[in-house]
Amino acid sequence: MLTKRYVSSGAEDNVKIFNEAAFQAFADPSKNKPLKVGLTDYMGGDGTVIRAATVGHGLDIFPEKFSVEAFFHHLVASGIEKPFRTVQLKFLFTQVPIYTALQFVYDPACSVNEISGRYSVLSDNQETLQNDLLTDVSRLSRARYDHLLEDHNLARELARTILGTNTHTSFVWKMNLFELARFVTHQRKFLRPNNLAHEFINQIESIASVAAPYSWSALMNPGKKLSLTYPRDEAIVDPELSPALWSPQETEREVVTAMEDDLFHSHHFLDNGRFQTVDYLGSDQAVVSAARISYGQGTIKKRESAALLRYLIRNAHTSPLEMAVIAVEEKNPFFSDPRQVGRHRTAAWGSFMDEVQLGSQFYLPSKDQLRQQDTTNRQGRAELYSDEVASDILKAMQAISKIQKDTANNLSHEISRLAKGVGFYTRTWRTFDANNNARFLALRLDEHAQWEVRQYAQQVFNAFRLHTPVIAQAFVDYTLETMCFSRLERKAIVDSRVLEGNVLDESSLANLSEREKNELKKKLGLLKP
Ligand SMILES: Cc1cc2nc3c(=O)[nH]c(=O)nc-3n(C[C@H](O)[C@H](O)[C@H](O)COP(=O)(O)OP(=O)(O)OC[C@H]3O[C@@H](n4cnc5c(N)ncnc54)[C@H](O)[C@@H]3O)c2cc1C
Q1: Does 369 fall in a domain?
Q2: How large is the C-alpha radius of gyration of the chain?
Q3: What is the pLDDT of residue 467?
Q4: How confident is the model at residue 339 (pLDDT cuts 50, 70, 90)?
Q5: Among 382, 278, 392, which residue's Cα sits nearest to residue 327?
Q6: Which residues lie closer than 8 Å to 421 by C-beta, 6 or more apart?
Q7: Per-residue confidence at 301, pLDDT binned at 50, 70, 90?
Q8: Positions marked active-site
Q9: How far is the CA of 342 from the centre of ligand 1 (A)?
Q10: Residue 298's pLDDT band (cuts 50, 70, 90)
């Protein structure tokens, strides 16, 4: 399939080889070699690191001549690490002893979904080593486990407690390139030489080093800083958002057509606000696949994909949602992003070479947004002004912003930013995964959020709906438009018998699944919890 996303040839080769081998191994496990670890999906590469570091401009914006390789070393040597977060590598681990897996699944920077065994049949495989004592105890514990299940029908989650930590597990594991380099470096220092995790770490490093070769080389062996001339802020922020720095190419990855149609299409909001999607990872389906790793074989046939996604979101099983990511570029007034949006720490973001530039454009509200202070909500707005007063206020805002701009023009870069108001526009990029995106949107689409930030959140929400429409709809149904009752409110509803005859009209429940109907009846005290 063709994609407008950045294509890494090294990552493509790995995805192709691994997915073909995985298909064969699952089709006939008796004939095909078991897989250990491989790349199943990715986002970004060296090209997106350059793009993010220069917020879409590319290296031509610097007047100096230097090699691409030297630029990557400069980023790392200067501590500019955020652009490396635009590269995300998603691996599938299939034959990992539980004890070895713990090195991977508890790293705070990874997105992971494991066969927990809580919902599924555990793997029958165990790691075998050339050691008779170990082999004996493994066989014995597996035999006792089978006995407890077959002869006593013991709950599986209890029987499992006697299984060896050498029992195999499988998991989907995603990490951005910056954290991956930190992870590999740390594990190599920490692990004893004979730890089995080394084999897996070597394999993921060999994949990372071809998926983003310049980035990986610089992250693992930081070189020297360059002496670079940065353009003035206006030259960075004021231009329209840039088109792709690359042309469409074939990809082995799943393609989301609605996103492909939207990529690098600049949407307008506020007076000078701009928003465009520039990359994505995964889809609704990728989240379903990650979830099924933990829901196991037994449940695959029972649930439709959409129903499974809705179930996950309704019950806050959110880790599979981290397998769907969008990357965006934007122009926003400084008071909006980074000042408010930037508080959402779980969305990676960055600006030109990690400094926040303020351009020459200043946000002026439209007359229908120019309102008096609300008397009850200290962060809200109330009455409109007459046209005449509104014009006077806008003129005053324009006048002071011009003085600020003129003053800034006579100052050096960094000091000039202090002369400007927080209404001047900035230019940044962000990556959101579907889980953190939903959390962000719940707060910033809400009527309590500043109107201007809501306009930006609406752009993010539009992209969310294009990328993962089923997840976005479930977010609307189970988060955005959901209200919780406190214990006291619920008691009041039940005690006051607002439900006529204490029964619900079944016809009003037509849109709910059987499970949801029962949950509602429990909440209203019509069924025992
Ligand atoms: C209407 C509105 C008004 C606001 N007013 C103010 C205000 O007056 N003053 C103000 O300072 N802020 C204000 N905020 C910002 C708000 O407090 C949050 O900082 C912001 O919305 C980010 O939310 P978050 O922490 O859930 O997001 P994220 O930072 O993305 O965090 C997501 C989740 O991860 C957890 N998390 C992330 N990083 C860490 C960490 N390092 N340690 C522990 N847990 C972590 C968070 O607790 C949260 O549960 C306002 C926000 C809104 C929507």
Answers
A1: yes
A2: 27
A3: 98
A4: very high
A5: 278
A6: 362, 400, 401, 404
A7: very low
A8: 444
A9: 10
A10: very low
Query: Would you state the structure tokens that stand for residue 141, as one six-digit string?
Result: 């514990």
Q: Taking the model in full, what pTM does it have?
A: 0.91
- Kindly report, residue by residue over 460-484, the tens digit of the pLDDT: 999 999 999 999 999 999 999 988 8
In a domain, 156, yes or no: yes
Same structural domain for residues 37 and 131? yes
> 320 CA distance to ligand 1 centroid (A)?
22
Residue among 3, 7, 186, 20 at smallest CA distance from 87 = 7
pLDDT at 39 over 80: yes
Is residue 448 within 6 Å of ligand 1 at its C-beta? Answer: yes
- Closest residue by CA, ligand 1 atom 18: 343
Mark whether 494 and 400 lie in a shared domain: no
Q: Is the pLDDT of residue 300 over 60?
A: no
Q: Is the CB of 346 under 6 A from ligand 1?
A: yes
Query: How far apart are alpha carbons 170 and 303 in whole angstroms?
Result: 21
Cβ atoms within 10 A of the Cβ of 11, count? 26
Domain termination residue (choose one: 204, 234, 264): 234
Does residue 453 fall inside a structural domain? no
| 9 Cα to the center of ligand 1, angstroms | 38
Residues 6+ apart with CB under 8 A from 13: 210
Structural domain ending residue among the three candidates 422, 442, 462: 422
* pLDDT > 70 in the chain, percent: 92
Separation CA 173–CA 281 (nearest Å): 13
Q: Output the six-digit token pair for 241.
A: 């958002």
Q: Is the pLDDT of residue 87 over 80?
A: yes
3-state secondary structure 154-173: CCHHHHHHHCCCCEEEEEEE
- The answer as to whether 468 is a domain residue is no
What span, in angstroms and rounded, lies between the C-alpha atoms of 398 and 406?
Answer: 12
> Does the structure show a pLDDT above 90 at 281?
yes
Residue 343 Cβ contacting ligand 1 at under 6 Å: yes
37-43 and 88-97: which strand pairing? antiparallel
In the prediction, which pLDDT does 20 show? 83
State how far the Cα of 465 lies from the Cα of 454, in Å rounded to an integer.
16
Band of pLDDT at residue 165, cut at 50, 70 and 90: confident
* 129 and 51, same domain (yes or no): yes
For 200-209, what is each residue's pLDDT tens digit? Answer: 999 999 999 9
Q: Residue 509: give the domain boundaries.
A: 487-523
CB 88 within 8 A of CB 100: no
Clarify whether residues 518 and 387 are in a common domain.
Answer: no
Are 491 and 412 part of one and the same domain?
Answer: no
**Average confidence score pLDDT of the chain:** 90
Give the number of other Cβ atoms within 10 Å of residue 284's Cβ. Answer: 21
Instruction: Give the CATH number of the domain where residue 33 resides.
Output: 3.30.1360.170
Q: Structural domain tally of the chain?
A: 3
Evaluated on CA atoms 366, 347, 317, 522, the torsion sign reads negative
Q: Please tell me whether the peptide bond between 365 and the residue prior to it is cis, using omega within 30 degrees of 0.
A: no
